[in-house]
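Reviewer 2 asked us to include a model.

Predict the structure of this chain.
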Amino acid sequence: MTTPEEDARASARGSASVGRDMVLAVGLLGICAGGLAVFLKTAATAGTGLPLVPVATVVVLVIGLALAKWSVAPVRRRPRRLLPSGPDPYVAPLADIPDVGGEALDHAAVDADGFEHTVAALCARDGCSPVEVVGGAGDLGADVIATTADGLRIVLQCKHYAENNRVGSQDLQRFGGTCFAVHEADVAIVVTTSSFTAPATEYAAACDILCVDADALTAWTDQTAPPPWETRTR
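Predicted model (structure tokens):
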């Protein structure tokens, strides 16, 4: 779709092109007329015996036809690229955030694989898009990868542990070795249905990894606390 300013500039360019064509046509006509006059004068002086009037008539007709064809020939213009109306076609549309019901957030009702999906549902509920569950063989420590509304890349590891099975420092170290260097996290988070050992929380603090234990997970799920990435100290 073109703007009024672009249309005005195109009209001005068209007028200028027509003006140049007129000047060229008049100049060509003058050159032809001068050449014809010289030819007639030379032929008359030389006494060649050529039928000068018919020759002149033919030449004038040829010149006139050429100019007439030039004047009515359509002007070839560079095709104008039109952009489709509506949203900018070069901006990718935002993915829809899925509806998240209460059952999708029931962490106790699922197994370890299902826990990755309930955590992903939490991220989607709180405005992340896209949200991907990537856990499995060869995941290199990442179970969920999400992007917040302001563009932060969130990498989460999910530990669906029993209450008496605490997340240890070795779990954090394995995750710490890949979350930033491999998965390029802006914010790295370990979420568990259990708790963390003291060495694990110390390592996490040193590596800027956020730890979400069972109590923090409940608060996040019940929306009595903000999403963990919003609590990060900047």
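The radius of gyration is 40 Å. Confidence is low (pLDDT under 50) at residues 1-10, 70-99. We have added this to the supplementary material.
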